[in-house]
Amino acid sequence: MLGTIAKKLRMFGFNCKYDSSIDDDCLMLIAKKENRIIITKDSKLAINAIRHNIATITLQAATEKGQLIEIAKKINYKKFTLEHSRCSICNGVINITSKDQLTQKIPLRIVESMEKFWQCDRCAHIYWIGSHIINMERLIAELNNEL
Fold it and tell me: What is the number of alpha carbons within 13 Å of residue 70 lying toward its C-beta?
């Protein structure tokens, strides 16, 4: 399962579909129809997808960091960033939003202590700069150092 990789790729701005319960044939059909790249550790799926002329990245690395570097190198991606993040939950577009609109949606202590907020246009999940973003920025520095 590559759910964590999909979430991270979304945060890096990639338009990713992920469904752990989808069967291989349906996955390939969607990838072909929507011109997507299949990212997998499953060599049987990769071989089958390649036979159907579907762009495929077969991951070899065991670590999440190694897998992200592997993906970046395969698609010639030069620099990870959070500038165009997508929702890690649903893949929707994240837009900056006003504090005033959030007072009933998140804890008051967060509203009072943070200045910038973003909200997903699809699932309405709310984001702010907290420890998760700080950890992502640390990961980005490590990844970019290896590209």
Answer: 16
Q: How many CA atoms lie within 13 A of 106 on its CB side?
A: 20
> Which segments of the chain have a pLDDT < 50?
none
pTM over 0.70: yes
Rounded CA-CA distance 90/120 in Å is 9
Cα 122 versus chain centre, distance: 15
How many helices, marked H, and strands, marked E, lie in the chain? 6, 5
Alpha-helical segments (H) within 12-83: 24-34, 43-51, 64-74
Structure token pair of residue 60: 């070899």
Rg, the chain, Cα only: 17
Q: Length of the chain, please?
A: 147
